[in-house]
Amino acid sequence: MSAERHLIFGAKGWIGGLLIELLQKQGKEVKGTLVRFESRDAVLKELDDYKPTHVYNCAGVTGRPNVDWCEDNKEATIRSNVIGTLNLADCCFLRGIHMTNYATGCIYQYDEEHKQHGKTFTEESEPNFGGSYYSYTKAMVEKMIKQYSNVLTLRLRMPVSDDLNPRNFVTKITKYDRVVDIPNSNTILYELLPASLKMAEAKLTGVYNFTNPGAISHNEVLALYKKRVNPEFAWKNFTLEEQSKVIKAGRSNCELDTTKLVAALDKLGVKVHEIHEAYDLCFQRMAEHLKAGTPMSW
Questions:
Q1: pLDDT in the model for residue 244
Q2: Mean pLDDT, rounded, for 157-176
Q3: Band of the pLDDT at 1, cuts 50, 70, 90?
C-alpha cells in the first residue's frame, strides 16, 4: 500500500472524477468523498478516519447551466465557494494536511494596463473583475485562503478535456449560436491535471496561474476544432455588447502570466505546451477517441 493517501472533495464533479481516474491509473490510493465541505464536523471526521496525506478541493458552485445561476442563488454560492472552501482549508491546516485548491483565474478582465496581447495578469495582480457573483466570491475567498500555509491554489481558466464532456469549454462554445472572439488563457487538462499532482506531491503552496502559456481566441480554437475534429463545423461571432444582452452575468476575458508556473514545473521535470500547440494536440487526441468510441485517457 502506498504511503500516500489522496482524498478528493467534489468527487462527483467533472474535475474530481478526472483526478480520481488519474490517481488510480498511477497506482495511488485515492478516495472520493461525498462529505459536504461546509460541514465542519463531517470534514474533520473524514480527515481523521481516512488520514489522507493529500487533500484536493474540486468542490464548489459554478452554476447550471452556467454562472448566471449564481446571480439568483447568492446564499448557496457563498455557502459553497466561500464557507466550504475556507472550512476545508482550515480543517486540513488543523490536521497538518496539504490541500490543493482548484480555483479560477476568471477574476480578471482586460483593462487599460492589461490590454489584449499586452501585459498579463500575475499571481500578485489585484482582481479587477466583479461582473459575475461567481467570480466575486472566488476573488474574495482567494484573498483569505492565501493566508493558509498548507494550501496550493491553482487558477484554472476555461478548462478543456480530450472529450466533449458538457463541462468542457470547447463543448460549450460549439453549442452556442454565436461566440465572441477574444484571446483568453485556457487550461488543457490532459497536460495540467497530471502537473497539479506533481505540485501537490511536492507540497508546493501559494497561488499559481494554472493555464497553458499564451492566449488563444475563440475563433482560433474553433478553427483548430474544425481542422482536426469536425470539418463541417461552422460558427458565427458577435460583439461583447451583443453578448451582454443575452447573459445575466458578465464574463471574464484575460490572459494570465504563467512565468511562475512554468518555473515551478521545470524544477519538477514537467513541460507544458504553449496553448496553440496544446490545443492542436488535444484535438488530435479527441478525434482519435471519437473515431474509436473511447473515452478520454491519460
A1: 60
A2: 95
A3: very low
CB-based contacts of 68-76 (< 8 A; 24+ apart in sequence): 68/132, 68/247, 68/248, 68/249, 70/132, 70/133, 70/134, 70/137, 70/249, 71/132, 71/133, 71/248, 71/249, 72/248, 74/133
Rg, the chain, Cα only: 19
Q: What is the rounded distance in angstroms from the CA atom of residue 246 to the CA atom of residue 205?
A: 39
DSSP state of 274: -
Please state, in angstroms and rounded to a whole number, the distance separating the CA atoms of residues 245 and 165.
27
The mean pLDDT of the chain is 93
Continuous H helices in 79-161: 85-94, 133-145
Residue among 213, 239, 79, 117 at smallest CA distance from 157? 213
Distance CA 250, CA 107 (A): 11
Instruction: Check the CA dihedral 168-173-174-177 and report its sign.
Output: positive
d(CA 294, CA 22) in angstroms, rounded, equals 16
pLDDT at 252 over 60: yes
The answer to whether 182 and 123 are in contact (CB under 8 A) is no
Which pairing describes strands 98-104 and 29-33: parallel, antiparallel, or unpaired? unpaired
Q: What is the pTM of this model?
A: 0.94
The answer to whether 136 and 108 have CB atoms below 8 angstroms apart is no
Q: Which residue has the higher pLDDT, 67 or 125?
A: 125
Cβ atoms of 60 and 37 closer than 8 Å: no
Three cell numbers, residue 268 = 519538477
